[in-house]
Amino acid sequence: MITLRALTKRFGETTAVDELTVDIGPGRVTGFLGPNGAGKSTTMRLILGLDRPTGGQALIGGQPYRKLRRPLHEIGALLDARTLHPARSGRAHLSAMAASNGIPDRRVEEVLATVGLDDRAAAKPARALSLGMGQRLGIAGALLGDPPVLMFDEPVNGLDPDGVRWIRQLSRSLAAEGRTVLISSHLMSEMQQTADWLVVLGQGRLIADAPTAQVIAGSGLAVRVRSPRPTELAALADRLTAAGAVVESGGTGELTVTGSTVERVGELAYELGVPLHELASHEASLERAFMALTADHVEYPAGTGGASA
Ligand SMILES: Nc1ncnc2c1ncn2[C@@H]1O[C@H](COP(=O)(O)OP(=O)(O)OP(=O)(O)O)[C@@H](O)[C@H]1O
Fold first, then answer.
1. Class of 2-209 in CATH
2. Which of 42, 79, 203, 205 to mutate to test the pocket of ligand 1 (most atoms within 8 A of CB)?
3. Distance of alpha carbon 157 from alpha carbon 123, whole angstroms
4. Cα 17 to middle of ligand 1, angstroms
5. Cα-to-centroid distance, 212 and ligand 1 (Å)
6. pLDDT tens digits for 224-271?
7. 221-283 sits in which CATH class?
């Protein structure tokens, strides 16, 4: 269990994490989501004692990280897989970690087998490892102390579909063993398949803490509308917005509408004389739910020209 209580971190004028109170429970995969700069990495660093909070507490099994007597046995983390000594082999890296934490060396073989790194891969210097192998090695390190809490920051970034599937299966089996598994990711379709529960941050604050299915259902059905007449379609979009629906433009001549119904959109289109080439309801997705949840919390919404970095 990870317990955050009024956790706050300020960097000068920036409040990266703002009075965050949430429990991340065992036996499930919790997806940690939020737009860029929402405070996910800072929260993870605070949990691991790599940064000091400005206020509040981050506890692992009821203790702050710095009070853990055998940290590797309490929490395993993958933050940035690229921080390994470049000339050291994966096996040597894990052996050094094991030795300095009183873990028998045979455990190194066990975790290498769990993450699917064979002898040849484990003997390579870290700089010669592919991104996927580096992630596997980072996860092997996280598993070394057989901890009840695991935390992976963007574990599927840059992985091929096999690697993505492997992380999904591993996370789910670790949770099925009763462990607490917290994973941050920007890949919504992946989180929709992997996470049982979601914790969503916006500008350092908690904006959702609920089962994945509930978050997705909350976005409601989406209605897709296509018309060959962009000007008339824009008028339809205005009317829908005025009526309280959320309208996203999907390119020229296309709209995605939430907070309305196919019937209502069809009737309004008829009233305004908008010819339609498509009017269909689509299953709600985490992607759409996320957009709706975080719409007021993005630092540089698309189209403002601020996200040029
Ligand atoms: N060491 C630091 N010094 C100053 N500001 C920082 C520092 N670390 C993070 N921040 C700021 O705190 C905010 C939260 O950043 P953080 O990296 O935690 O967000 P994130 O949700 O992990 O973002 P991303 O999805 O882009 O990785 C941002 O505004 C960031 O610029």
1. alpha beta
2. 42
3. 24
4. 9
5. 25
6. 999 999 999 999 999 999 988 888 887 889 998 887 889 999 999 999
7. alpha beta
